[in-house]
Amino acid sequence: MHKLLAILLCIPAFCTPALALPPEGMVYDLKASVVKVRVALPNSHSGVGSGVVVAKDQVVTNCHVVANAQAINVIKFGESHRANYIKADWHHDLCIVGFDGLNTQIAELGTSATLQYEQPVFTISFPNNSPRPLTTYGSVKALYPLDDAVVIRTSNDFRMGASGGAMFSEDGKLVGIITLKSPGRNAFYYNLPVEWIKTLLQQPELSIPAAGTLPFWDSPEQNRPYFMRVIQPLQTEDWAALKSIAQQWRQHEPNSLEALHHLAIAEYKLNDLENARLHFKQIYTQNNRHADALLYLGLIAAQTNNKEFAVHAASLLEALDKDLASELHAKINHTNLDCNYTTC
Known about the structure:
Elements: H1 2-9, H2 24-30, E1 34-40, E2 46-55, E3 58-61, H3 63-66, E4 71-76, E5 79-82, E6 85-89, E7 94-98, E8 120-125, E9 134-146, E10 149-154, E11 166-169, E12 174-181, E13 189-193, H4 194-200, H5 226-229, H6 231-236, H7 239-252, H8 257-269, H9 273-286, H10 291-303, H11 307-317, H12 322-333
Antiparallel strand pairs: 1-2, 1-4, 2-3, 3-7, 4-5, 6-7, 8-9, 8-11, 9-10, 10-13, 11-12, 12-13
């Protein structure tokens, strides 16, 4: 078992250094395609969000930013532009607002289909009603297949006002739209795929104001995607509930590595280390950039006195996620490990 795991972990891809940040000049130029969205709501209320120019005079943002708005404006270079129509995909929470004479840089649309775990990404948006677009840097942490695309979870955090902002790959292509985060501490941050924008661009124009239905993420709990339903038991550390939901997830999506990952987490927390190890190994075998699976394999090795394997896993994590590598190193340093993985 331990020899096989050691072979699986010795993959050259992990020996490559982490990708560098995108060129500063490219990031600066891309800020021209990201705008602040202001809306006038009923009863004299107002709202603010972010948006991205995806075609001539067309800005994509989240529908929850502009729903029921009596007027929609974007602010760019200190100038306010009034929208005159909207295109809406209420279910996916993506709306395009149209203008006359916006005349600003258009973001190049990429694809989410080729994204990989731990791939660097960066976001540009207007969190907390910032007067200038702000940038965050992070990486892809998980990909969840949904409606012929993938919802993208990243390590990039965001605040109120960032909704509708841009997520770019390291080559400067738009791959996602900042949309929502899970509640509570240690939140998960989700971005919607650019593929849904490409479909939305072909939809008919609607008049403003426009009211629609709730998005998929705001439906009743039992109707939400499983990747959202596992959040509460994760946060409350209800491992039996997490195991149950993960098993249901696997029944509905038998090929989902994230369903298997959450099942393995539950097994690990319930001290079923052998099944957890088998499942984390299966995940890692199919996706050798899955840093969380590698972390847990290292943690299990540390708990079962396989020092050499645990140290090796930690060294490989350095190329993927330094924070997780530090977590594993701390576990190793606080555990009395004497034997090696070839003899334990």
